[in-house]
Amino acid sequence: GTATLRLLLVGLGSEQRPALLGAAKALGWQTDECASASAQAAGRMALADVLVIDPAPAPAEAAPALLQQWRAVLPAPGEPALVLVSAGDAAAGEGTADAAAGEGTADAVLAEPVTAAALFNAVNQALARHGRSGPLLAATRLDGQSLRWLPGVRVMVVDDSELNLEVARRLLEREGAEVLAHVNGREALDQLRRRPDIDLVLMDVQMPVMDGLEATRRLRRDPALARLPVVALTAGAMLAERQRVFDAGMNDFLSKPVEAQALVRCVRRHVERARGRALPVVAGDGIGLPADWPEVPGIDAAGAAVRLGGDAGLFASLLERMLRDFSDLAQPPATTPDAPALAARLHKLRGTAATLGADEVQRLAGQAEQAAVATPSSLLAALQSLATALARLEGQARPLLRQWQARREVQASAAAPGRAEADDAPDTESLQQLVALLRLQDLTALPRFQARAAALQGALGPTRFHELAAHIEALDFDPAADLIQALLDAGDRGGA
Q1: Are 312 and 293 in contact (CB under 8 A)?
Q2: Is residue 421 predicted with pLDDT exceeding 50?
Q3: How many CA atoms lie within 13 A of 470 on its CB side?
């Protein structure tokens, strides 16, 4: 069967929770959520590969206490591995990770803002501490995010076909690797003796001058190159040919034409084994925005799309929510507010803005938070700068979000002509599926809700539908599931 990675997200949840769910979804991982370390949590924990501790900002939850509480109920160290979501920038996060690991607490720390690259690296590090990172790549979608999977890896490609060399070069360089190309085994051997920094060799088996098998046999006789990973590129699938590859001292083989994801998985596996440590991934240059993405001035759209797994509906919902929840901060304060109470709200705004790619708001909210904590005398000026930036973002975003929502509604009605007339009531099976997704806190519930919104509005009436839509928009999935379940139960009683 297909490999699966299961994350259990625990704690009341920081402002990074939506980005965390979006990144996990884009990486192809399964997620479950559980607020407290109760008896019911034991069954969920037994299924999880990684426990991600995502506390609400203090004073609601103290991260060290929450970490110890969950650590105490682990059946054994590393089962599951522990990742702690931590406020602060990436550099601070790395230091905290080392400290946490040194104290025998968290296996890795995930610093905000949460990205797919940071989540993958933290999970990889956590599993590697317990020798369990092997299956991770097989359980991960490599094309679901704009990531570079081979950053800084030095690969030599040896093939007598210029076309094959060019294809391999492009595939590897796109993933961040540095590539050296040679057309026969003799050239490759000469260069390898001068380049001890090469991480892996992709070697064609059949070449003029010196074929890949002979080149590998000679390479293995050189003590400096004896442990260098060599992967055969072979057009043959016969068992005898594969056996010759291993007899010559090669570590693995790839069949030509080489498939991009198989190449990445193979290279990562052997380089990590040779280096003896997890190989980090980094964010790429972007894969283009989804066609329906609302582009708002002042927002890093490409970064937001990567962090939210390309989910335009989630982006629009979170942006609307941020503008609504912090609308008071878009007005310059007349007097200096209570600094300690304000610091927690500014911290939340900073994290949400980071997730959404609202870089200026993130920066100014961070400055205001620092002022609230350390230098209250400069708080008023910091809040005035923040208010200007927030008001400008709101002025630019509101009309664009309204236009975007209108376009989505037109597209939805065009995609299902006559649906509302034909379906006065939504079908039971699709609503049961929607309830199941909401119970699992699965973000794919969002587009499913949008697709059934007209039928649900007709069945619930305007008041209850407005209540349901508000829960969905706020990502309060459990009460939303309760409302739809009540509708299903009423239908069952009516039909009985």
Answers
A1: yes
A2: no
A3: 7
Rounded to whole angstroms, how far apart are CA atoms 280 and 122?
Answer: 9
Contact of 132 with 78, CB cutoff 8 Å: yes
Give every CB contact of residue 351 below 8 A, 6+ residues apart in sequence: 14, 15, 16, 87, 112, 113
The mean pLDDT of 91-96, rounded to a whole number, is: 40
Q: Is the pLDDT of residue 62 over 50?
A: yes
- Of 140, 245, 238, 237, the closest CA to residue 202 belongs to 245
Q: What is the DSSP string of 467-494?
A: HHHHHHHTT-HHHHHHHHHHHHHHHHHH
Give the whole-number percent of the chain exceeding pLDDT 70: 86
Q: pTM score, two decimals?
A: 0.63
Per the prediction, the chain carries an average pLDDT of 82
Kindly write down the DSSP assignment for every residue of 359-378, as one continuous string: HHHHHHHHHHHHHHHH-GGG
CA distances, 256 to each of 47, 137, 203 (Å) = 38, 21, 12
Which distant-in-sequence residues (6+ apart) come within 8 Å of 52 by Cβ?
7, 8, 9, 10, 20, 83, 85, 110
User: How far is CA 431 from its chain centroid?
Assistant: 28
CB-CB contact of 154 with 180 (8 Å): yes
Residues in the chain: 496
Of 99, 389, 76, nearest to 84 by C-alpha is 99
Give dist(CA 294, CA 154) in Å, integer: 38
Rounded to an integer, what distance in angstroms lies between the CA atom of residue 38 and that of residue 42? 7
Which 3 state secondary structure label does DSSP give 161?
coil
Q: Model confidence over 434-460: pLDDT tens digits?
A: 888 888 776 667 778 877 888 888 888
Q: What is the dihedral of CA 205, 211, 215, 216, to 10 degrees?
A: 20
- Give the CA-trace dihedral at 265, 95, 37, 482, to 10 degrees: -70
Nearest to 137 by CA among 146, 149, 147: 149
Residue among 327, 345, 348 at smallest CA distance from 18 = 348
CB count in 10 Å sphere of residue 413: 13
Nearest to 447 by CA among 325, 283, 290: 290
- Dmax over CA atoms of the chain, in Å, equals 82
pLDDT number for residue 185: 93
pLDDT at position 21, please? Answer: 86
Residue appearing with tokens 């190449």: 263
Alpha carbons 146 and 208: distance in angstroms, whole number: 38
- Structure tokens given for 198: 């090469």
Mean pLDDT, residues 351-361 taken together: 86
